């Protein structure tokens, strides 16, 4: 995929702020804080600083819309599972996510990101079944592939499949934002999503 143009459209907290003109097809990225959602967007568009990343969790707090080649959006969602967050902001997160996921007509697919090193958490499982219950395929991306050895990969992927109760048809794509491994395969999946 040749990236000619990529820019942030808006950091939204409420539906009135979601971009509507033009109403481009979009893919959203969900997952725990620190799993690598923002880094993945940067990797896909070959830009180091389009989406802001941080080694400490909780960096992305709003729904950030990125417009790519004037053709579609990538949507960076705020992460969950960050322990040092108040109850009220967890509730606000839930409302913001639910509103977005249930009302956004041009949302084609939600990618669920999990860290390849770790067993999916309860929240990952909830998020994944939530995504599926809204009618999305629930494509899973295993991030930070560079952090484990080649020999360990299949074992970790099997655990993710089992814990998220994925079927053999459900897509699970391992990637590294660091080495860019998996990038081409992921782009194929993205283009396939938008072709429907
Ligand atoms: P929140 O915005 O807090 O929800 O986090 P996020 O999911 O957007 O994570 P972010 O992209 O900010 O990445 C978190 C940390 O993980 C940063 O220090 C990244 O450099 C690192 N990271 C992300 N992807 C990879 C990867 O594929 N490999 C390695 N080694 N590090 C990664
Ligand atoms: Mg982020």
Overview of this structure, please?
Keywords: Cell cycle, Cell division, GTP-binding, Magnesium, Metal-binding, Nucleotide-binding, Septation. Residues 23-196 form the EngB-type G domain. It comes from Geosporobacter ferrireducens. There is one protein chain. The protein contains five helices and seven strands, in the order ββαββαβαβαβα. The mean pLDDT is 94. The radius of gyration is 16 Å and the shape is globular. It has a single domain (6-195), classed as Rossmann fold, CATH 3.40.50.300. It has helices spanning 37-45, 87-103, 122-133, 153-163, 183-195; strands at residues 6-12, 26-31, 63-68, 72-76, 107-115, 139-143, 172-174. It is of the alpha/beta class and 196 residues long. The chain starts with 5 loop residues before the first strand and ends with a helix. A seven-stranded mixed sheet has the order 1-3-4-2-5-6-7, sandwiched between helices. The site of guanosine-5'-triphosphate has 24 residues, from helix 1. Guanosine-5'-triphosphate is lined by residues 31, 33-39, 53-55, 57-60, 78-79, 143-144, 146-147, 176-178.
């Amino acid at each position: 995929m040749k990236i000619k143009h990529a820019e942030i459209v808006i950091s939204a907290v409420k539906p009135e702020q979601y971009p509507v003109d033009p109403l481009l097809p979009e893919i959203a990225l969900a997952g725990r804080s620190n799993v690598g959602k923002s880094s993945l967007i940067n990797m896909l568009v070959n830009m180091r600083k389009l989406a802001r990343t941080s080694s400490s969790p909780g960096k992305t707090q709003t729904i950030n819309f990125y417009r790519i080649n004037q053709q579609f959006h990538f949507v960076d969602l705020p992460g969950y599972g960050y322990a040092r967050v108040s109850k009220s902001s967890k509730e606000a997160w839930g409302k913001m996510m639910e509103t977005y996921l249930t009302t956004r007509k041009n949302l084609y697919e939600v990618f669920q990101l999990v860290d390849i090193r770790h067993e999916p958490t309860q929240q990952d499982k909830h998020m994944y079944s939530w995504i599926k219950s809204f009618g999305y395929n629930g494509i899973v991306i295993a991030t930070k592939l560079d952090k484990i050895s080649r020999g360990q990969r299949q074992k970790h992927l099997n655990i993710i499949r089992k814990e998220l109760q994925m079927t053999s048809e459900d897509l699970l794509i391992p990637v590294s934002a660091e080495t860019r491994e998996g990038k081409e395969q992921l782009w194929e999946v993205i283009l396939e999503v938008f072709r429907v």
